[in-house]
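hey all, quick one before standup. I had two proteins in the batch that finished overnight and I want to keep them in one place so we stop losing track of which output belongs to which input. First protein below, input sequence then structure tokens straight from the run.
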Amino acid sequence: MKRVTFADMALGGWLLASPFIFGYSLSRPVTVAEVLVPGLFLVLTSAWMLASHVAPLRTSWLQAVDGLWLVIGSFVLLFSRLPGGSLNNLIVGLLVLTLTVIADGALLKQTT
């Protein structure tokens, strides 16, 4: 389970760096917020899940919501004429959702 949480944290770090890597950080501040806010949320929720002793099954829905936000936000970025940023958000959002499903499935198997 910790590997999945570290993977989510790495994806959040990638989201925090991606506007600067793709070079649209200064030209579109609202679009940057669409990437930085979910990235920061993903890093913070992952750190919280690693630091606390709360049941991961109870907190993983937060990251699933973040993944959905990224998938929906990818269409916002597409309409903002940022196809690279849109594809990045879509891929990261789908990866976050996939990791959440994998982690929840493993946790459910352990509890039964």
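OK second protein, same deal, sequence then tokens:
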Amino acid sequence: MASRAPWLAAAAAVIAVVAALLLWRGCRPEPAGPPADFASDAVRLVSPDLELEMVSVRGVAHPAYTDWSCLLACRESRGCRADVKLEIRYRSGSEKRSLIIGGRLEGDTGQTMRIGRVQRPATSVDRIDQVTVSVVAAVKPGAPRPTPVV
């Protein structure tokens, strides 16, 4: 029996090390995956300058960025033609965040228009609280777009 004692002690030590490693691996948090795609058709829209209707706010998550898309329907009797700023207020986990998107709306009454932007780094969106649209400048029909400064 005395000759088995060293072997039993070594086996017990190996089992203890393996068990400790398995427990340690099980306690580590899983690495976070990329954010998920999101969509919301029921978002509160605040638009004091233009009569608009919210169609949807959507996002496509990529590993390095989130591609945002906001669809708005024009309800102005003379059409919607303006350079605008959109502030999207949303929640990512328990954190409140906002994203500013600038662009041009050009559409007749009833037409749906899209404004979008890429956000880096990628972010997860749990809920979209509100979209606020502010007119930066009115645009005449057929007016040329300004050349962006890079």
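Flagging for whoever picks this up: Residues 7 and 13 are 10 Å apart (CA to CA). The chain has a mean pLDDT of 85.
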